Amino acid sequence: MNILNLLGGLAGMHLWAIATAAVVAAGCAVVGTLLVVRRMSLLGDAISHAVLPGIVVAVLLGGRPGGLWVLVGAVVAALLTVWLTQVLHEGVGMSEDAGAGVVFTTLFALGVVLITLAASRIDLDPSCVLYGILELVPFDTLLLGGVEVPRAFLTAGLVFLCLLGGVTLLWKEFLASAFDPAAAAAAGLPVAGLTTGLLAATALATVAGFEAVGAILVVAMLVVPAAAAELLVHRLHLVMGVAIALGVLGGIVGYLAAWQFNTSAAGMIAVVLGIEYALAVLFAPGHGILARAWAAAGLAWRVACEDRLAVQWRAEEGGERAAEAGVLNRLVCLWLRVSGRIAADGRLLPLGQTEAMLIVRSHRLWEAWLGRHAELPLDHLHPPAEWIEHHLGSEVRRRIAADVGQPAGDPHGRTIPPEG
Amino acid sequence: MTGPFPLPYNTLVVAGGMAAVGCAAGVVGCLGVLRRRSLAADAASHATLAGVALALAATGRRELPVLLAGGLLTAIGSLVVLVMLRRFTRTREDAATAIVLGVSFGLGITLLSGMTARGIPGSAGLEQFLLGQTAALTAADAMLLGCLSVAAVTLVWVGLKEVVLVAFDAPFAAASGWPVFAIDTALVALLAVMVVVGLPAAGAVLVTALLVIPPSAARQWTDRVATMLVLSGAFGLTAALVGVAISAAVPRLATGPVMVLAAAAIFAASFFLAPKRGVWARWRQQRELQQEWSRAGRDPTQAPTKAAGRSGP
Amino acid sequence: MSRPQPDSSPHCLEFHDVTVAYGRRPVLWNIDLTVDGPGLFGIIGPNGAGKSTLLKAALGLVPLAGGSVQFFGQPLRAVRTRVGYVPQRETVDWDFPVSVFDVVLMGTYARLGWFRRPGPRERELARDCLARVGLADVANRQIGRLSGGQQQRVFLARALAQQADLYFLDEPMAGVDARSQEQIFAVLSALRAAGKLIVVVHHDLRSASEWFDRVALVDMRLIATGPAAEVLTPENLQRTYAGPLDVLDELGRAVARRERTP
Amino acid sequence: MHRWTPRRSPGRAARLAGWITCSLWGALWAADVAAAPPAQAPTPLRVLATTTVVADLVRQVAGDLVALDCLMGPGVDPHSYKATPRDADRLARAQLVVASGLHLEGKLSELLGRLGKRLPVVSVADALPQNKLLELAPGLYDPHVWFDASLWAGCPAVLAEKLASLDPVHAPDYRRRAGEYAARLQALHGELTTQLGAVPQERRVLVTAHDAFRYFGRAYGVEVVGVQGTSTESEAGLNDINRLVDLVVERRIPAVFVETSVSDRNVAALREGAAARGHAVALGGRLYSDSLGGPGSGAQTLEEALRSNVATIVAGLGGGESPATGSPQP
Question: Most Cβ neighbours (<10 Å): which of A116, A124, B139, B149?
Fold first, then answer.
């Protein structure tokens, strides 16, 4: 039974399960982005634990798992968590994370005790809270317009739409309070209200996800896509879009992988989200590990080429001849020849000549600047100039030249080539 | 053979094991809270599940030491990943902790479920590590937990001044030559050991409570680290014993969660009643100050005699 | 321990072509500075000039991108116990459960080494240091219950307990009431009289000229150094506080992004 | 700064994600209609049994006339069963789902009730007369009915009728085999009763890891106690273990038993507690409770499992004079 067989013989059921996972992931991504950006991820973790007693009490009072009352119970439990953490923080000056730690572990323990005490009357069992039953969601359906729609999908879909709607409506408020809460409050935005709203939304997303992937794995869905998106793009609305996409993708690939390896879908989805995050760390444009390694290699190559040109220019200027041997040097010479900067015998061609002149000019101008602005003895000037020559552009060179009074020679007396 | 007091054997064994774990968790937890590493311990505790599953898959044996050893490996592994995330990525610490927590727990469940689906013998019972299986503690288990707890507390007492120095003022510690990163790593490793020792007691999800609640309660009573350690150990021990007692009295009640609730009760009491820091004490102080001012207000010459509370900057 | 003779011995403190970068962005460029004891040496410059970074780089709290720092002619590792440090106040959680006396005792930990507990000799020393900064009466109070000035003096007492020959103080006068400033300065003068070298990061120009024997003007690079009277001239101050910073900023960004400046 | 997603206004990025979800939903609606199961299956009926016990029942009643698949393998505890996507796939493919019923399968049983609308489902134990069942709590019955062979004998007929309605061609075979199997079960019932008679009355106390043997106790006059409750979900409390240690010591019970699908740490703690009170309790052996043995275990059918259980119990509880320290059979 390989993947193709799965897609071919699909009885629609797997698609419903995947769709549910995707919608839950999307809802979590919407809220998760704001949590991660406002450094409240651990509140997301706390809430996903603390909703348990809220849910259990709601079910004990007769609410159906996944029904309206359970949503209310969870939101109340979430807000209680946040309020208690605040009371501890202001009451006795406990740090936020220790306070949250005390509150959510206590509430979770209360939830577990309630479940075991009332085990006979309700069919909630502790491990189903932790696992979720995504696989069996398609069997619990409602008739909607002639089509059997899983109840969990409807709940999750509804939650996703109102989260998306709420966030899009209050977009600028969330953006302002996320970026700089103090300024937003000063500008009259109800930052406290927005925060409470965000945490209530987190509780909603947790409950929507609770039945599908279990309370704990909702943490993965809340935080991981948003954290990965934050590495890839830098505008808040893009981060949210990418987070939704990563969440949905994680849900789909996770479910298929779970089918392939015959294991829990919720667990595999969390693992796939983890892999997505690792890939984001690796391939993020700009500051990703590969991007940084690529840029470092690029710089090293540029420095080697420019040093070679400068050495050649100084040799032709009658200065010291330092022909470096070595593999890198041969590679650089090969490239310089191919790119028409030096001739076959190593002499500078016009293109090489102008570039080399600019490098030496940067070098000697920087030595002049250091001589003037920093108390450095003569023999200390060369190493910093050797480093800065590769980073000085024409406009800044012009400013330095003006600042040091257009000197003809550098502090060592060698002439500074013109800008040309 | 009824012992000196007619407590059943199992209750004694469980009480002994859990008392040691509760006390050690309280003591080590103090340093975790002071160094703001307790939520990293939460991530480590969720990671133990994957370790337990791997240990069973690798060795096929179900004895507690084997499973706990597996749990320790992944707990420390998750803390290493956490450090690497903080150093090599732009992701902030709270998000990184949540990532490690969520993904490692997901991995644990994936492994467990995969093994059960493949009918690997004994994998069915591993869920007990999620919520703790205290009542089924045998003497050998209790002995193991006891020794680890005593070792942890001794380590804390021996290296106390180094850890407190680093927790209080890391730059000063580094400047005066202490290897701050090494001391931090040792503390986090000790937290991971305590997470694993606490696993059978409270389970992967609640073991953080044993490391966070007693120290937070102890902090309300004292301004000295040494006293805080002793108090936190005592609170952890008391919570454990109360949890065991209740679990022995009421049928069908798991010991782990009850221990956590007992610790929470102790914390609540400390939160309100502690002298100086407690809410009631502060409220009383506030009221006295207002009364003095109002009296002074009526009689301008008689300013308040003693400056109550802290003379703020 | 014999005190090094000023002329023949190596410099108390020597920065040799020190460059410091946060991430890839340089904040201190090629600092070359030698300081001889004893005396009060001020590091002066505008905010964000990298003054306290220079201090932290010397103590190894921030990695050096280039160059080296020597203490009494040796690397810091060899002479750790001869160097005292007073960090900035906001680096610490003032709700931490320790008393004033405990904090000062921490100054003695370095000489005690691993696992040994402070004994009566260390306690006596701590009490003496507390007396020297005039805080003997609040020894058992939790540090959070002190004023800003008192907290700063606790840090100073802790440094005294290190019994060092060279002291680094990072903005000791920031946010401190006038009376405490005088008390701190009195202690520093006493140290100078005892032949110690005290290096202080300071931002207030007015008090700089009267307090310090020698100063260094720093703004991402070393502008001038020497006796306070000669260095604190209007021309130097103008170069420090209104110097051509934009060049260094542009360069810093270019280096960070591995590109050329525009 | 390289940017791989085009610059969009806030609403449009979110709408893009919304659009993806909708198109996904549309595609699945079409796939659902196209892949509806064909009405009448010419090939053998695809039957999915939930537990190994139920699978054995289907095998006995239908033999090779149906393509039988079992959801939970040997050694899997039905109370805490977690479906994987592939299990859900097997559920959806089945033409008839046979479950044990009375909420044995935990969360799954509730969903099987709803699945009934789209797919024929039969819970054999639900059909048994309620007056014969043991009530744990109002409306909640002990689901372990297969330990009373005579009671379980009522189930083959229920299954046969369901199979007949779905596969009328073989209806007579189903009814005949159901009748034969019911008769064999009744005979087995008698046989087990006589075997257990060998154990003296005061030693007939069966202590096991979880409370699955109430029907067995009622049927064969054995007092039954489980460390954990009827569902392995509710974790054993210290109170339960202490209570059992007292029972084992006072009644001087020679052996206690572990089960294939339940963690045996509870029983280990129980034996240690009793030993501390000076009463050495042997480990009587491993019983088959919620799941039968795997291939080659000698207990693949219910009959073999019951016989193996009784043999282990008789050996453990002292059919002879001294409590034989039975080595735990696989």
Answer: B149
Flag whether residue B185 sits within 8 Å of chain D, measured between CB atoms: no
pLDDT of residue A221: 92
CB contact under 8 A, C147 and B174: no
Closest CA to B37 of B153, B211, B193: B211
| D83 touches B: beta carbon within 8 Å | no
* Bridge partners of residue C198, in order along the sequence: C40, C167
Full domain range(s) for residue A341: 291-403
Question: Which CATH number characterizes residue A156's domain?
Answer: 1.10.3470.10
List the domain boundaries for chain D. Answer: 45-190, 197-316
| CB contact D211 to B (< 8 Å) | no
Against chain C, the chains showing at least 3 CB pairs within 8 Å are A, B
Note whether C117 contacts B: Cβ–Cβ < 8 A.
Answer: yes
* CATH code of domain D197-316: 3.40.50.1980
Interchain proximity A270–B253, CB inside 8 Å: no
DSSP string, D60-116: HHHGGGEEEEESS-TT--GGG----HHHHHHHHH-SEEEE--TTTTTHHHHHHHHHT
Residue A207 resides in a domain? yes
CB contact, 8 Å: B119 with chain D?
yes
State how far the alpha carbon of D200 is from the alpha carbons of C124, D253, D257, D307, D322, in Å: 81, 12, 18, 19, 12
State whether D13 and A241 contact (CB < 8 Å).
yes
* C216 phi, psi to nearest 5 deg: -130, 130
Q: How high is the ipTM of this complex?
A: 0.80
For chain D, residues with pLDDT lower than 50 are 1-10, 24, 28-41, 320-330
Cβ contact, residue pair A113, B106, below 8 Å: no
Sheet containing D66-70: give its strands across: D66-70, D45-49, D96-99, D121-123
User: Which of the listed CATH numbers 3.40.50.1980, 3.30.559.10, 3.40.50.300, 3.40.50.2300 matches domain D45-190?
Assistant: 3.40.50.1980
SS3 of C121, please? helix
pLDDT at res. B151: 94
Q: Does residue A261 sit in the same domain as residue A295?
A: no
Output the tens digit of pLDDT for each of chain C's 262 residues. Answer: 334 444 556 788 999 889 898 877 888 888 888 998 789 999 988 887 888 899 999 998 888 888 899 998 888 888 888 999 998 888 788 888 899 999 999 999 988 888 888 999 999 999 999 999 989 999 999 988 888 889 999 999 999 999 999 999 998 888 888 888 888 989 999 999 999 999 999 888 778 888 888 999 888 888 888 888 888 888 887 777 765 567 788 888 888 888 888 8
- Res A15 pLDDT > 90: no
**Fold (CATH) for B9-298:** ABC transporter involved in vitamin B12 uptake, BtuC (1.10.3470)
Interchain proximity C145–B167, CB inside 8 Å: no
- Name every residue whose Cβ is closer than 8 Å to that of residue B312 and which is 6 or more positions away in sequence: C147
Interface membership of A369 toward C (CB under 8 Å): yes
Please indicate if any CB of chain D lies within 8 Å of the CB of B11.
yes
Same-domain check for residues A86 and A221: yes
Chain C interface mutation, best of B176, B181, B228, highest count of C Cβ atoms under 10 Å: B176
Suggest the residue from D80, D232, D238, D264 to mutate for an interface test with chain B (most B CBs closer than 10 A). D238
